[in-house]
Amino acid sequence: MVGFAKMGWLSTDNNKSLIMGDHSLSNSDSNNRKANQMGILAFETAKIMSRLLCLYKSLSNAEISKLKTEMRSQGVAYLNSKDEGFLLSLACAERLEDLDKAAAAVARLGHKCNDFGLNRFDLVYTDLKLGIIDFGKLEYGSKEIEKRVDKMEKLINATSGLYAALENLTELEISERKMKKWKEKKTAGQLQKVNCDMFNQRLEQQRKQVRQLREISLWSQTFDKSVGHMARIVCIIYARICVIFGPYIPVLPSVSLRNMRSSQQKEILKVQPENCLIEPIREQIISRSGPIPTTSKPTLVRFYSRKSIFFLCEDEGFGSEKLAKNNRVFHAAGPSTVGGSGLALRYANVITLVEKYSNPSESVDLNSRENLYQMLPENLKKTVRSKLSKNLKCMDEDESLAEGWREALKHIMEWLAPMAHNTINWQLERNLEKTKFDIKPSVLLLQTLHYSDKEKTDAAIADILVGLSCIYKCENRQWSES
Predict the structure, then answer these.
(1) pLDDT of 224-277, one tens digit each?
(2) 449 neighbors 284 (Cβ within 8 angstroms)
(3) Can you list the alpha helix ranges (DSSP code H) found in 358-434?
(4) Cα atoms in the 13 Å half-sphere on the side-chain side of 315
(5) Cα 132 to chain center, whole Å?
(6) How many C-beta neighbours within 10 Å does residue 374 have?
(7) How much is the pTM?
(8) Rounded to an integer, what distance in angstroms lies between the CA atom of residue 293 and that of residue 29?
(9) What letter does residue 285 receive in the DSSP assignment?
(10) Which residues contact 337 (CB under 8 A, 6 or more apart)?
(11) CB 41 within 8 A of CB 113
């Protein structure tokens, strides 16, 4: 176990030089510091930092309040579940899974640190989950932590700027090599000489910008200093998760009120639910007609706070390596859910296209119409054909049905479209994670179509497609031939 005595980076008072930098370094210390600089690993570090700050910001009072409001929204309640405790347990599991991955990345960088606590951060993180570390020292939102967060944001922005500047410099240097080859073949005139001078001036300015950005970005930071920032934020985030979700997940380490500020004590008491009892998490979420049931027979699956596993059958063993291989929160969706059927992104694209085509100014060519239809699975194609045939016949007899479909389409899209957009955003955030330095709070799976009841979602999509067709017929907006 790694105690506080060996974790100076966690104590604000014991290691000011690590946090603020030591300006009284000897020549040998200065050389060692230069050798310990991050260099090219600055970009990987910036991405890890951005993931941590994204998690940090997602746990603010405003974001938690926004999450609870969205959990009560019509789309989430109708397609996913009305059980707030159950939905919060899903949110907790996903945030913890994201934190586990970020902590594993911090631990890998920690192997390059001189500080023992940072070098074995995997042990520190284990101690944290065992409840050995005093949570009273980990105050979310304190002035010291907010200063650290601001510092990390500036480092991320500078490193992002360096990344872009290096890309531009690479392009200029490629052009420089081409220009040298061209000059060897031809005798340059006065005009060409002027152009070359301007190019060389631009190239030198770009190199100067790169040097400046290297100095103020993570490139010139030491591993100990940068990993120290991240390690402390990991601990802050975990403590915050226990404060917010602890009342709903009793196996999380309890947070002692004794050593905390009065403002934090009020915050903890404010999130206490009237009833902390929730059903065990199932390995697969099986949704039938209606919200996700909580009365089906549970398997031997539950939260584990002492290992990096949160959805786990008892015969599978423990360890963060298994979690890295399997996104257990993602794969918790059963076959009767949209995500478990592998249709979440496809359905989201269908819904957004219907949203686009329902705009009165929008025209749809035959290829677009065919592409939209081909995006549907076979069972949904049959449902749409059957409903459309009945409704178009009825419309010939009663034109007022078109107005009813217009209202129905508007009403359904009000709660269905946001979930479709969240589904696409969730995918984009994961796909762009390796190339972006974004720190805004990310979407949770419970806000998407992933856990949605497939039967209900199919019915809703069939309704909006039939409604769209009826509106086109009523308004004489024929499918365009162009």
Answers:
(1) 999 999 999 999 999 899 889 888 787 787 765 444 554 554 544 444 433 322
(2) no
(3) 366-374, 378-397, 400-431
(4) 1
(5) 29
(6) 8
(7) 0.79
(8) 62
(9) B
(10) 285, 286, 287, 450, 451, 452, 453, 454
(11) no
